[in-house]
Amino acid sequence: xxxxxxxxxxxxxxxxxxxxxxxxxxxxxxxxxxxxxxxxxxxxxxxxxxxxxxxxxxxxxxxxxxxxxxxxxxxxxxxxxxxxxxxxxxxxxxxxxxxxxxxxxxxxxxxxxxxxxxxxxxxxxxxxxxxxxxxxxxxxxxxxxxxxxxxxxxxxxxxxxxxxxxxxxxxxxxxxxxxxxxxxxxxxxxxxxxxxxxxxxxxxxxxxxxxxxxxxxxxxxxxxxxxxxxxxxxxxxxxxxxxxxxxxxxxxxxxxxxxxxxxxxxxxxxxxxxxxxxxxxxxxxxxxxxxxxxxxxxxxxxxxxxxxxxxxxxxxxxxxxxxxx
Length: 325
Ligand SMILES: Nc1ncnc2c1ncn2[C@@H]1O[C@H](COP(=O)(O)OP(=O)(O)OP(=O)(O)O)[C@@H](O)[C@H]1O
What we know:
By secondary structure, the protein is an alpha/beta fold. The protein is built from eleven helices and ten strands. Keywords: ATP-binding, Nucleotide-binding, Transport.
């Protein structure tokens, strides 16, 4: 089962470069959350800080009773077992085949017998759709397969929290759609807490339960997907509409300099991805629930899927399990 991550007053700098001033928010247990932000806003630094690879200048990161920045090295070693991390490039060892890559954390962190390791590795390969590829070297498979192999390795110690750093970078839209479906299916099956860093607006619109935007040394917003997608925050609107006009500049140092131009309207909210078996995830919210509760009218065309079905109106019918395609 997933656990909550509670971040309080986090500040991080490298020399005179301040990455964030004061970040506070909670990543809800068992849900899928995504962090977005222009390049260089410290998204990767944030994930590394969560697992204690980097230390913040100040602030707290609570995972149940533990405050990650205050753990001793040997305690951090134990803490990291609770996290599965998918790095940007999969971070596989090029000289090892997929089997040995995925077995690596089990051999490092546990005293399991080789027969048990084999069972677990083959199970995780199957979970990510890579059965039969265990003998391949990372250089012999595609970028998408490398990501999935990295994901299998991240899953191997049954983590409660899964972090993924731009899992969709360098993937075509179809491979990205498959990977997003895999995240939803894994979340439904494992119930772990997922935190995904992405640049991909398409992913951010359909995958997460919660979204946040890092911008100008701050987390400008973090909350339910429907809240963020209908937000009037100019940086959020600019980002989701991929516009040049707005507070996000060409480079970090240009951010906030230009704020001229119309704030674009919010885009329709697409239905959230369902698990492949058609059953909602335990933590999944009813489409439109946040909007109704807060009296916000959804942008026209929201919650209509590509078959023309309205998920807000017909949720009870649509969520009934369907035969797998
Ligand atoms: N170990 C380090 N030492 C010094 N500066 C660093 C270090 N790691 C990251 N930085 C700087 O911190 C800033 C944020 O980097 P980070 O990689 O987290 O950005 P990002 O938001 O993930 O960007 P992108 O979306 O382009 O991957 C960058 O300016 C980077 O140069």
